[in-house]
Design goal:
With 232 residues, the protein is mainly alpha-helical. It has helices spanning 9-38, 73-84, 86-90, 99-114, 121-124, 132-146, 161-173, 178-196, 206-210, 213-231; strands at residues 155-156, 159-160.
Amino acid sequence: MGHRKVPSSNAHRRGGHSQDSILSGLTKAYIALAGIRDRTTEYIVSENSWPLFVYENYRVNSGDLEEGFLKSRLLVLAFKAVFTSPSSARETDGDGDAADIIENNRRARRKSDQTKVKTCVASIINMKKVTPRAIAYIVCQVRFALSSVSSWRTVDGDFDYEAFWCNIVDFFEEVPGPVMRRKVEKLRESRTRKIFGTNHREDLTPERVSHMSVNALAEQRKKLEDAAFDSD
């Protein structure tokens, strides 16, 4: 008959440490919530702090605050609900990229065959790309929806919505140099793909078209024709 293995004292210590860390975390969270509720000077909620809901998976890397910034699923759903219709937000599954976008577009087409589709806000204002100001508007609306106030006000306690909106726009427009500009453009383009898919017709400028293969082939044929004419 086998003997049951007795947990080592190290295992007990590890378990105790785990419980202690959980209790410590809960205590800190309770203190923070109480401080926010009571509006103490140690926990001032203002436009000078980025809220957790703007981050991807609602997690913040304090060593790199730009990681996951403005990439939360909640913002995608809110943007769709406001600009492309509430139904498009309900149909957003997965992470919003690649196969998810294809499947969501298929659902939208099937639904449009069955019901009359109303013109969305994005179509009315001819919005085809996500803009810094549109992002700022949505973040402000989400923050208001998550707050405890029942009616809109520019300043909610210590939180100034107008200054907060400017902070978001400045993140995109007041960049320190070309490296950061490329990063914010990449972020804006990724948000556009999440909301509108991958149609880039508006990006086909004459300069871009001139470097594509149709024009390149035409140019090569012209050069060959000129060379043959010169040789004669």
